[in-house]
Amino acid sequence: MECLWRKEGNTLVPMDEVTEDLLAKTNNGVTVTTSEPRSRRNPKHHRWMMAILKVVIDNSDAWSNSDISDLMLYLKVRCKMLKIVTLPDGNITAVPRSISFASMSQVEFNRVTSRWVYIICSEILPELSEHELLKETEPDDKDFPRQRRARGAGKEEELHQEAAA
Asked: In terms of residue numbers, what domain contains 112?
């Protein structure tokens, strides 16, 4: 079960009914363990990444007969987003990692997005600059995390993502 909390000062405040019920059932003085805090993923950012992949499918001869899941698998392998698994027979294989909300924080997804955009613009659609790709796909929404370049970065170097507040 996943509990959602918001930090206010030195206090954790429940964010949903499930978490409130769990807190109500916990006796005073009981020590509770937690996992490492993770920021919530921005669903708009996820939809935006899917829009970028759709642009690639629509504008690339090499990917025109594929779907988004094929392109995602290629990008995961290209970025070495792999988990090494030992099978019961002793063979070792690599399995692409998931980008699901439960398996990846927003900070990790920001890095993945930057790497995928770089690969798309440098290898798959080299005629399209990162700026053009982002401008074509970025939603016009004030709550959307904006891409920005790090100070001193070259024109086509990896982008850095501002996390949504």
From this structure: 43-161
Rounded CA separation 108/81 (Å)? 11
Model confidence at 162: pLDDT above 50: no
Backbone angles phi, psi at 51, to 5 degrees: -65, -40
| 141: three-class secondary structure by DSSP | coil
pTM: 0.63
Q: Per the structure, how many domains does the chain have?
A: 2
Q: Do 105 and 64 reside in the same domain of the chain?
A: yes
So what's the pLDDT on residue 151? 36
Whole-angstrom Cα distance, residue 68 to residue 104?
A: 19
76 and 21 together in one domain = no
